[in-house]
Design goal:
The complex is a heterodimer of chains A (242) and B (418). Chain A is an alpha/beta fold. Chain A has 8 helices and 8 strands; from the N terminus they run βαββααααββαβββαα. Chain A folds into 2 domains: 119 residues, no CATH class; 112 residues, no CATH class. In chain A, α1 crosses α2, α3 packs across α5 and α4 crosses α5. Chain B folds into 2 domains: 210 residues, TIM Barrel, CATH 3.20.20; 97 residues, no CATH class. In chain B, the strands form 3 sheets. Chain B has a 6-stranded parallel beta sheet with strand order 3-4-5-6-7-8. In chain B, strands 1-2 form a two-stranded antiparallel sheet. Classes of the chains: A alpha/beta (242), B alpha/beta (418).
């Protein structure tokens, strides 16, 4: 069985789809630690602009919205994301028309769930991201999301904080979105050293006081709190740090 | 800079207001401005009581002229008092907003000096946020009963949402427990705002619309003797006649000792059942009369949809592949999302139980009320269905139980007094 290993980017993935499409049994993955069996044949995929464009064109002919959905799924942290997207594409091309709502098909359900995990995390992070004011007046928000969503958040915050300068830093993936008050770009970002503004700790303290005061102690329901706000996100929330 | 202690006092005083949502408004940012609103609303944090923090919920002052029996801030109560200036509130809102702690401001106040003076200062705060700070985030403003109508309209052009709290589910209870407020002092402004919103809609006003996110209200459950049926009837009337976006219920917590008030809380299960019924009215096409009789209470054992289905077994089972959407919505275990998925999926193929399970339909409940391709997997006997749904209901109330810190209320749930 052939195993197509991509670099994790979308060009590499669509090229792999092109190469793998006519194989009877094969796997596409960007996971370097994929389990190999005795008959596996590893194929490394080099992104190819022309093949990539042909695959995308074919997909768009079946469903104009599908490429965007696939790009969302490829942001997932699930190690099977390429395979799940590939199965979806095969089914889409077989049906020749949109299948995004064909919830009778297992490929569609699993694809849809993965897509929702990504968009749900984007939505949650629009709420849970926390900015700190630096001494230069720019705002800095470190976080560590499950999925690769920083540029999606940049779109949201560039509208909301149109006149501010800010950085959203995915410390796990070592990338950051940087907005200068006019435009934003994505960039590599390892470690960041931040000097906080003189009022930053004051407002963090006020926020913690507020958080404590607004809770109704007679109605404890920690399980629900943790369900909505998973513990793994807490380390970047001032109100949950001790 | 705002004083920490003041913030604590005025947050403590505001926290019993349950409304927290920041949805319904699509207000956009303007050049040079700060913030926008998100139509679906955004939750920014969750407190250990399981509620979300979306807006900075705070009172301008807790110094009150009124003496409402149930209220911890009533005039005769011996509690620490504080008052904030419009600038202090604006500064705090802007700084919390820039750090993405909040989606906007929920400003309310006790009635100090006079209703007009209170409303005037609330109005001034909101106007400052919008015009001086150029703030375009979400603002929910509490209306002050008995305040001047012109002040109210001025506020309504600046805020995204306003609310006048009904407080208690009947005029009689209002008279007894909140004698300075009257039904008219709450309903007249509510109607005024509704008419202004209707006017904007008819005239196709786009800019500076009155309350893009509409109005809501809140009432306290269990402080007075009204039945669930009466409460839901009132709720339905408020949705139909006042176009309210939400009616919130707040289960009564005995923070204030009074001989006019019960000494135990109403419990969260009752509140939970009322919200379930509220959802059925708004999203599932039910009338109140179908869910609960005028002087009845909702069953603690089953959710209101199950209870309705058990009373109306003549409509079931329905065939999943052919039943209209309105009927699917009435099947216990199928929610609005599930019904949508079924309707979409069955255009592609006939569905069986396996398909439904993969769509995350709650088959444990739904199986008694549906067939798939003519097959039925539920129980034939009514009593068995009741028993199995009841078991599930018991699990639900057990998890509910863990929410009571007060053991006497927990006991009353067990013994069915609730």
């Amino acid at each position: 069985m052939k195993i197509f290993i991509t670099d994790g980017g979308s060009y590499g993935f669509f090229t792999a789809v092109f190469n793998a499409y006519n194989e009877s049994a094969c796997v596409i993955t960007s996971d370097e630690n994929v389990q190999l069996s005795f008959d596996s044949e590893v194929v490394r995929v080099e992104a190819d602009g022309e093949k990539c464009a042909r695959v995308q064109k074919k997909i768009e002919a079946c469903d104009p919205a599908a490429v965007d959905d696939i790009l969302l799924v490829l942001r997932s942290c699930d190690s099977l994301k390429e395979q799940i997207a590939f199965e979806y594409i095969k089914r889409l091309i077989e049906k020749k028309s949109p299948i995004s709502r064909a919830f009778n098909l297992p490929e569609v359900i699993i694809f849809d769930e993965l897509k929702n995990k990504v968009t749900n995390e984007v939505h949650k992070m629009t709420g849970f991201l926390r900015f700190m004011e630096s001494d230069s007046g720019a705002f800095y928000a470190p976080y560590s999301p499950d999925n690769d969503i920083t540029d999606l958040l940049m779109r949201h915050f560039a509208k909301r904080f149109m006149n501010e300068r800010f950085v959203i830093h995915d410390v796990g993936r070592k990338i950051a979105g940087i907005y200068d008050g006019h435009e934003w770009i994505m960039s590599y970002a390892g470690e960041a050293e931040i000097y906080l503004s003189e009022y930053e700790t004051v407002f963090q303290t006020l926020w913690k006081k507020y958080y404590k005061a607004v809770n109704i102690e007679q109605r404890p329901h920690e399980k629900q709190m943790k369900g909505y706000m998973p513990v793994r996100y807490w380390k970047f929330l001032p109100e949950k740090k001790i | 800079m705002i004083d920490e202690r003041k913030l604590e006092i005025l947050t403590e005083s505001a926290k019993y207001d349950v409304s927290c949502s920041s949805s319904g408004s699509g207000r956009k940012n303007k050049p040079g401005g700060l913030g926008n609103a998100s139509v679906g609303g955004i939750c920014h944090s969750f407190t250990p009581d399981g509620r979300c923090i979306s807006l900075l919920k705070i009172l301008m002052s807790n110094e009150c002229l009124y003496d409402c029996e149930y209220c911890p801030n009533r005039r005769s109560a011996d509690v620490p008092r504080a008052r904030l200036t419009p600038d202090e509130i604006c500064e705090l809102t802007i700084n919390f907003y820039k750090r993405n702690y909040i989606e906007g401001l929920f400003l309310s106040s006790a009635v100090f000096d006079s209703p007009d003076r209170t409303m005037e200062l609330l109005c001034e705060t909101v106007a400052k946020l919008r015009k001086v700070y150029n703030f375009n985030g979400y603002i929910h403003l509490k209306g002050i009963p008995h305040a001047d109508g012109a002040l109210m309209m001025r506020a309504a052009r600046l805020a995204d949402r306003m609310s006048y709290n009904i407080e208690l589910p009947s005029e009689k209870s209002l008279k007894l427990l909140a004698p300075q407020k009257s039904k008219q002092s709450l309903l007249v402004p509510m109607r005024g705002l509704k008419e202004a919103m209707d006017g904007d809609r008819i005239n196709k006003v786009r800019k500076n619309r009155v309350l893009p996110a509409g109005q809501t209200t809140q009432m306290i459950i269990g402080a007075s003797p009204e039945s669930d049926g009466q409460i839901l009837k009132l709720t339905e009337a408020l949705y139909r006649n006042m176009d309210l976006k939400r009616v919130y219920y707040s289960s009564y917590i005995p923070v204030v000792k009074s001989n006019k008030l019960p000494s135990v809380g109403a419990g969260l299960l009752r509140e939970h059942r009322l919200y379930q019924a509220d959802w059925l009215i708004r999203f599932y096409g039910f009338n109140v009369d179908e869910i609960c009789g005028e002087n009845e209470n909702l069953s603690p054992d089953y959710d209101p949809k199950c209870a309705w289905a058990l009373r109306n077994m003549q409509y079931f089972p329905v065939e999943v592949n052919t039943a209209p959407l309105a009927m699917l919505l009435r099947v216990p275990g199928i929610g609005a999302k599930g019904a949508y998925k079924i309707c979409e999926a069955r255009k592609f193929a006939k569905l069986d139980f396996d398909n439904l399970a993969k769509m995350r339909i709650v088959l444990k409940r739904a199986k008694h009320f549906i067939t798939c391709k003519g097959k039925f997997y539920g129980s034939e006997s009514q009593s068995q269905i009741r028993a199995s749904l009841m078991l599930e209901g018991a699990r639900e109330s057990q998890t509910q139980l863990s929410m009571f810190s007060d053991s006497s209320t927990a006991l009353s749930v067990l013994t069915g007094e609730l």
